[in-house]
Amino acid sequence: xxxxxxxxxxxxxxxxxxxxxxxxxxxxxxxxxxxxxxxxxxxxxxxxxxxxxxxxxxxxxxxxxxxxxxxxxxxxxxxxxxxxxxxxxxxxxxxxxxxxxxxxxxxxxxxxxxxxxxxxxxxxxxxxxxxxxxxxxxxxxxxxxxxxxxxxxxxxxxxxxxxxxxxxxxxxxxxxxxxxxxxxxxxxxxxxxxxxxxxxxxxxxxxxxxxxxxxxxxxxxxxxxxxxxxxxxxxxxxxxxxxxxxxxxxxxxxxxxxxxxxxxxxxxxxxxxxxxxxxxxxxxxxxxxxxxxxxxxxxxxxxxxxxxxxxxxxxxxxxxxxxxxxxxxxxxxxxxxxxxxxxxxxxxxxxxxxxxxxxxxxxxxxxxxxxxxxxxxxxxxxxxxxxxxxxxxxxxxxxxxxxxxxxxxxxxxxxxxxxxxxxxxxxxxxxxxxxxxx
Length: 438
Hints:
This protein is mostly beta strands. Helices cover 8% and strands 59% of the residues.
């Protein structure tokens, strides 16, 4: 017994020595992903020996919602709500070339009057980075258990559990050319959630797998071009929805604007990314209609003139329907906005957003009824205040309209509230991303 205690104590002491002993963070190879990793690790706010930590207290959507169910019930249900969370990101450099990263974000979703909507949520993922001279490798996985608005098709809170695995290999062929191979796999479980008498688990529980091969060309330090070929497989776990089993084939191309560290200009440079392409959504059941067409993800901003920035947003992709009578739909979201810097610490913003869902199955006289199809319009106003280096508050208001396609009936709602972040948010590593998730 004494020997066992001695061995455990020695192991704990060795681990503490490895973690707590101060030592420098080394450069992470000669790949663009490895260089980004080194910057994020070095920029972490808190240090404890070898550990690098970012953490914050986040209060989001704290305010009054005029209808938390957005017209899905016969009568509006107003309520006061907020989400409080503590996102924590930890880096542990194990050697000159290996970094362990862990992220966890526990949060509580609160409603004052609608107690059944209250929920504890958690998002966790961990990954290990290997940054060699011309090779970057990342492998990891995650667990999430969150109650949130499901999709534009069914815009109400549904609990979703997701277990995921992912991996990346990036080869820096030369200074301007690099090649990436990516894998992503997830399993979705919706438990006992129901809507309109239909089990969401029966219609949406599934496994997804993706394989991407990406080629990058970076002609300058500001722009990185890419072309991506993707294969996806979707297998539904419930027998009642096995007819939805699908394979997808996509080709995407675009570019990412690489921000220059520490750059300050009177007019903001272009930032963000553009990914456009074509996807075939092949339903394995030969009696059902396949989907194919233009898809894309655009999220860019640029200075219009001094202290004023404009932005544009597009997201168009296929998604599986939560309704038992449908297989999939094509979701299209787009919009734009403008921000004006009022002072060194204050920014006012306005955004106009549109969303709609199209069901290709309707063309053949089958699939989801038109009564379930909706169009959204959202006006969003915000005033962001940077009160201190580690404290930011954003006052916001939204006006939203949901129009039912078959009847033209409009459902309206508004939200007034604020977001607050105290601390330092997790850093995002610039690394290869699959498909439209850039």
